[in-house]
Design goal:
The structure is a single chain. By secondary structure, the chain is mainly alpha-helical. Helices cover 63% and strands 3% of the residues. The termini are far apart.
C-alpha cells in the first residue's frame, strides 16, 4: 500500500490573482505584487477583502475588463473609442455622464451582440 500524497498547495502569480480579483496589479500593495498567492489566500481575499482591495474595487483604477463592463461595451469597443489606460470610478462616471457618440455606438453594438448570442443559444 502506498500512503496518500500530501496535498500540494496551488499558487498563482500576482498578475493572475489580480485579474481574478478584478483589480489592476500596479495599484495593489507591494507585498501583493512581489509574492505568490495560494488558492486559499485568493479565496480569503474574495470572501473577506482587506481595506486596500475594497478601496480598489470601489474607486479604481480599474483594469480594462472592469471598465468595459461598467460602460457596457466590449474591450474592443473601448479600444475603438480610444480608451487604452485604466480608469477610475470617477472617470468612468464622467464618461457615462458625457455619453460621447462612440460610447453610444459601442453600447448598441454590444447589445446587438448579446441579443444574437442569446438567439443562437436558444436554437
Amino acid at each position: 500500500m502506498t500512503s496518500p500524497k500530501p496535498k500540494s498547495i496551488q499558487t498563482m502569480k500576482p498578475e493572475t490573482a489580480a485579474k481574478k480579483l478584478g483589480v489592476l496589479l500596479s495599484a495593489t500593495p507591494a507585498e501583493f505584487q512581489e509574492g505568490v498567492v495560494s488558492r486559499d489566500e485568493l479565496n480569503e481575499l474574495q470572501s473577506r477583502p482587506p481595506a486596500w482591495l475594497v478601496e480598489l474595487r470601489r474607486n479604481g483604477p480599474h483594469p480594462k475588463q472592469v471598465v468595459a463592463a461598467k460602460l457596457k461595451v466590449s474591450i474592443s469597443g473601448l479600444a475603438r473609442g480610444g480608451i487604452t489606460e485604466p480608469l477610475t470610478t470617477a472617470e468612468i462616471d464622467a464618461l457615462k455622464a458625457e455619453n460621447p457618440e462612440w460610447l453610444e455606438h459601442e453600447r448598441s453594438v454590444q447589445a446587438e451582440a448579446r441579443k444574437e448570442a442569446l438567439r443562437l443559444k436558444q436554437r
